[in-house]
Input
Amino acid sequence: MAHTAELIAVGTELLLGSVANLDAQILSEGLSALGINVYYHTVVGDNPERLSAALETARRRSDIILTTGGLGPTYDDLTKQTICRVFGRELELHQDIVDALRDMFMRSFHKPMTENNIQQAMLPVGCTVFDNPIGTAPGCAFCEGGVHVLMLPGPPHECEFMFRRHAVPYLKSLSRDVIVSHDLRIFGMGESEVEQILRERMKSLTNPTLAPYAKRSEMLLRCTAKAATEEEAEAMLSPVMEEVRQILGDVIYGVDVGSLEEVCMARLKERSLTFATAESCTGGMIAQRITELSGASAVFRGGVVSYWSEVKAGVLGVPRQLLDEYGAVSEPVAKAMAEGARAITGADIGLSVTGVAGPDRDERGNEVGTVFVGLAAPDGVWCKALSYGAKRRDRIRGNASNVAFDLLRRYLTGLPL
Output
């Protein structure tokens, strides 16, 4: 049986724009991986009447409802009470949760629990309890009239933890089928281009399926199969994924990986190599992305943010003649910056970015979106010229940092640069 889910986020702060609804993205991606269709997202303020109306609508068109938020101890945390009223359930006190909360307050906060937290231990009669070891609000799930209702906390890290720890097993138990998904991460080809190439193949597939998803400066293809066992699902996925690999080639940079920088770090570790950066328009973005990964110190020596030409010359050793003749935004300077990053850090590989992120042309008349990405290694120096046009500043910088990591990936795997 195919299931349809609806997400209801509760919180006035979401409607006011004070807080972004990150939970919706977390849950939609997770439900998609389970093969559960999400047809509606609803955001409701802390108002019982409007939440009741949203729940009544949702129960008529979906057989799974996931709510986020409104499970806390304050007067406006009314999600559980409203859901119980709509679905005809009573609330009951779970003394074990009260005891655990009191213990946590003493251990973590060194003070007694305030009595309003007892509200968090009130849960629907007969529900499946979702414990919350990283927060104070437990979640729960129950089924009433063929509709499964799952209540999750609002803070995104708690929501994601509880979804993976409790909601995923609960939802998997609703079907005897096993659903397996793999994500093919793609850089260097846009969503529309990939869709155009694979359109007829994607339309012809029913199980497994292929679905494109646009990401910031890149995209992914999710391949999903449903079968009686995981082994059967994998056997169904394998030929489809290989077919896609053959069609798209080296723009696929990994399967079930998190990012380009994650792939680069793994390749650098495999080859016992290090790299360093020299950045201008990206302002340290490449260095930031690699250092957000655990274990980055094994591969990343350091970086220089060289916005001014004086820094390019004085710190990185870019010859003043190149700066005067070609300008800071040029292929020769990008190459020299990459070589300088290698030289001053002792890294095996240097990566550089110099460009015009806007809003105006530079002093040499280079258009906004003109970027040069350089790579220097023991066996040569390369540069990739980019022209993004008058795109937004953040997109130019994000695209440029992705190109830098892709250039590094290609060098490390012997692909054409």
The mean pLDDT is 93. The first helix runs from residue 12 to 16. The CA atoms of residues 10 and 44 lie 5 Å apart.
